[in-house]
Amino acid sequence: MDSPVLNQLFRQLFRHPACQSLPSIRSLPPGRPQSIRQSATSRSQCRSFLTRRTPGKRKSADDGMMWNRRGDYPKDISEEFKTYPLVTAKDLRHRRERPRQVKMMTREFIDDSLYNPHYGYFSKHATIFSPGEPFDFNNISDGPAFHRLLGERYTEFEDRLDETQPDEARQLWHTPTELFRPYYGETIARYLVSNYKLTLYPYHDLIIYEMGAGNGTMMLNILDFIRDTDHEVYQRTKFKIIEISPSLASLQMKNLRDSLNAGGHINHVEIINRSIFDWNTYVHSPCFFLALEVIDNFSHDAIRYDYKTELPQQGGVLIDADGEFHEFYSTRLDPLASRFLRVRQAAAQRPFPSPLGPKLLRGLRNAAPFHPEVTLPEYIPTRLMQFFDILDSYFPGHRLIASDFNKLPDAVPGLNAPVVQTRYKRRTVPVSTPFVHQGYFDIFFPTDFNVVEDIYRAITGKLTQVMSHEDFMRRWAYIEDTETRNGENPLLTWYKNASMLMTV
């Protein structure tokens, strides 16, 4: 974390003078850097904020929270810990400056950092790479040649952006939808149409929801394919995007209107600018729900376990008056984290990993001298569990098609830990903690598909299938479309660390 590039980045982020504390307490209204997302082997203004609490409603100091002081903390924050309010990302949603003088659970800090509409990563600082013309894979000599060509397209794309709006801290990432356009979208379309005609046609329309649609490329590729291959199904197709980012929702509509087939597609599309976690509309009809490379950015809770008692402690962060972050742990789990641990334990059909290690070795470890008191953190996908709750409650007839990374290199310490990175001067800068300057860092997690599949089945009662990204592509793609001249196929080899989860 002490590289010259990182030090220069931090100087850039904190160049503006710090704000002073407010004199009064106010009540509040309620797809990634380039090198991270590239392949299986390489992925890569502040103001005081306080919530009014009346004397009758103020929490007692002994509320189950505890601050674990470590030697590397620069100061004692015991008093701040007692007095700072515990807030959520929803509490901060309408605030334009990053918070100070608050406590947050880990998942809430990550949500605020990624999705706050005023300074969040996906709201202000992230751009999705578009390669322009689709790659002509059949005329590319081999995989390394495709990699070089992609690098050239990246440079050209960012050069064009810098001509109009230079940005040393621009966050840029790409998705398989963009890299393998239109073939990736056509692959998903084949899966959708085949399953629709097998089980729903002609009694129901083909209704497709996509969450986190980026540039809207997947939507266009799917609609183009259905229109060109099955006009009768196309007439019954409705495509609905659920997009949390206002800027991306506007971009999706612009790209739809600018497309060659806008006149035909426009009546089939609805773009809903809303977080899926604010969804409150009951959808009676059967539908397909696409969550492609989205769930890795769902926030997680950090859980550590006491080696002697094996009891969990839930992690959070205190942000002091100077904007410094201090990690803490609570012996009292909040309802969401507690429920996840119960559901996982009850639903598990297979053993799942634990930071406590194998049971047979725990006694020997505890008897050894100088062993630590608590484990490294385990990051549990509490927000993903809530997503499954929403699917079950509001989309009872859904069929989920989800894809994401099952493992990630260069993660921060811990079990199921995230990669935390940013880009500065077109270079990837990794860090070793999720508690970073909000809005400038992508925080994304691997997905344990064994655990996730069991939890999804327990919540929704639906049957599922998990397969590797490569196996899914071999089954549904026309893989000759993405073969290079020497027979290599980047569509199959670039996402070895990705899996697919489908409702059957």
How would you characterize this protein structure?
Its EC number is 2.1.1.320. Keywords: Methyltransferase, Mitochondrion, Transferase. Belongs to the NDUFAF7 family. The relative contact order is 0.15. The chain is built from 17 helices and 18 strands. It is globular, with a radius of gyration of 24 Å. Helix content is about 35%, strand content about 20%. The protein has helices at about 5-15, 80-85, 105-115, 120-125, 145-165, 175-180, 185-200, 215-230, 230-235, 245-260, 260-265, 335-345, 360-365, 380-395, 450-460, 470-475, 490-495, and strands at about 65, 100-105, 125-130, 170-175, 205-210, 235-245, 270-275, 285-290, 300-305, 310-320, 325-330, 380, 400-405, 420-425, 425-430, 440-445, 465-470, 500-504. Residues about 15-65 and about 70-75 have low confidence and may be disordered. With about 500 residues, the chain is an alpha/beta fold. The strands form 4 sheets. It has a 7-stranded mixed beta sheet, with helices on both faces. Helix 7 (about 185-200) crosses helix 8 (about 215-230) and helix 14 (about 380-395) runs parallel beside helix 15. The protein has a domain at about 135-300 and about 385-410 and about 445-504: Vaccinia Virus protein VP39 (Rossmann fold, 3-Layer(aba) Sandwich). Strand 14 (about 420-425) and strand 15 (about 425-430) form a beta hairpin.
